[in-house]
């Protein structure tokens, strides 16, 4: 897709791809997923950039993601099956 939307629950439930498609005239996909963080999206976006470059990437961040808190690696568990084939992102 030409436009990708990244973010946790706010992005997943707050952005409607069809509305953006109508407004921008570009294809759009919502990659947002509940409970994920910026580290998760970095890995997903890095793998997407290996295949193609979207025209626009929308990243919805919360204030909690910008705080100086320890990384919650449990939120990355969905990526574990891809760890060894994509180690360059680690």
Strand content: 5-15%
Radius of gyration: 14 Å
Please give the largest β-sheet: 3 strands, parallel
Helix content percent band = 25-40%
Shape: globular
Describe the overall structure.
With 90 residues, the chain is an alpha/beta fold. It is 31% helix and 14% strand. It is built from 3 helices and 3 strands; from the N terminus they run βααβαβ. A 3-stranded parallel β-sheet has the order 2-1-3. The radius of gyration is 14 Å and the shape is globular. The two termini are 25 Å apart.
In short:
The chain is an alpha/beta fold and 90 residues long.
Main features:
single chain, 90 residues, alpha/beta, three-stranded parallel beta sheet, 3 strands, 31% helix, globular
Give the helices and strands, then pairings.
Layout: E1 3-7, H1 9-14, H2 17-24, E2 28-30, H3 38-51, E3 56-60
Parallel strand pairs: 1-2, 1-3
